[in-house]
Amino acid sequence: MSKIAFIGLGIMGGPMAGHLVKAGHEVTGYDVVQAGVDRLVAAGGAGASSVAEAVAEAEIVITMLPQDEHVETVVFGDGEGGEDGGILRNAKPGVLLIDFSTIKPETSIKVAAAGRELGLRVLDAPVSGGEKGAVDAVLSIMAGGSAEDFEAAKPIFEVVGRTFERVGDSGAGQYVKAANQLIVGGTYALVAEAIVLMEAAGVDAKAGLDVIAGGLAASRILDLKRDTMLARQFEPGFRIDLHHKDMGIASAAARSAEVSLPMTALVAQLIAAARAKGYGSLDHSALLKVVEDLSGR
Ligand code: NAD
């Protein structure tokens, strides 16, 4: 069993940290929002009041933060260093840093290079499976880093995930996650269009989606979200704001790989519209509201 520091105890990090406690690890958590820390303490973990305090004794440091800037602040510190500094200044050499956040590949590469210079082992390990995947500990984990560090992280991945693969060196996990997010965004957009079409035509959309889910168009999104979409329940889940960030990562990755991804561009624009309409903190299934607006429904 390991001493683990867990930074970022939100929708995903909260349940993931809880599973690690249940598996017998000594987990010390930190989040800028105290409620996340309180939830971990109630689950049997320990709370810290800073990144420095959380990582001081850790053998494994885990981050699950919203965006690039949060990862950079937590890893590199706020520039003042010392006690208030980030993971790099406060973790012991040899520590394994697993970043589960979805961020730009370049940021992951930068974090890994800086960490290795100080003797840390670093993996980018973004996840897929949504809040339910985190709660049920069945996440898919796409890891970038050395084969040796991937082996070292397996006992953690086995607790929070079900499918995990090393997909290449540092940053590779983020490219695979970008690919994942364009499939997820595209699927939501088309499920939304299917609902709008069926409802406008006056057919039974619930029965329609039930039968569709048994055919070739079956998907996990249909299985998990069709009822809440039909009921227009858009509590996150996964916020539109975060999917907007992910489509930006996918678009930039496409540009640097010099490939043309027209569907990705279209879905990115629909998600941008959702955000512009003020739906940023709703679940990404709220793309349905944008598709409805386009048809005046
Ligand atoms: P969230 O906003 O619920 O959780 C992030 C947590 O990080 C928050 O509790 C926030 O207070 C904390 N935080 C921010 N800055 C911090 C700092 N400087 N120090 C300590 N804590 C800080 O977001 P989430 O939905 O859990 O997503 C986390 C990451 O996982 C994102 O990169 C997201 O894209 C990715 N992701 C989310 C889902 C999902 O369904 N929600 C699924 C797969 C991947």
UniProtKB/TrEMBL annotation:
All residue ranges annotated as the 6-phosphogluconate dehydrogenase NADP-binding domain in the record: 3-165
The 3-hydroxyisobutyrate dehydrogenase-like NAD-binding domain, residue ranges: 171-290
TM stretches of this protein: none
Catalytic residues of the enzyme: K177
InterPro entries attached to this UniProt entry: 3-OH-isobutyrate_DH-rel_CS (IPR002204), 6-PGluconate_DH-like_C_sf (IPR008927), 6PGD_dom2 (IPR013328), 6PGDH_NADP-bd (IPR006115), HIBADH-like_NADP-bd (IPR029154), HIBADH-related (IPR015815), NAD(P)-bd_dom_sf (IPR036291)
Any one GO MF annotation of this record: oxidoreductase activity
Keyword presence, Oxidoreductase: yes
GO biological process, one term: organic acid catabolic process
Signal sequence, start to end: none
Keywords linked to the UniProt accession: NAD, Oxidoreductase
Keyword Transcription part of the UniProt annotation: no
Family listed: Belongs to the HIBADH-related family.
PANTHER family: 3-HYDROXYISOBUTYRATE DEHYDROGENASE-LIKE 1, MITOCHONDRIAL-RELATED
Protein name: NAD(P)-dependent oxidoreductase
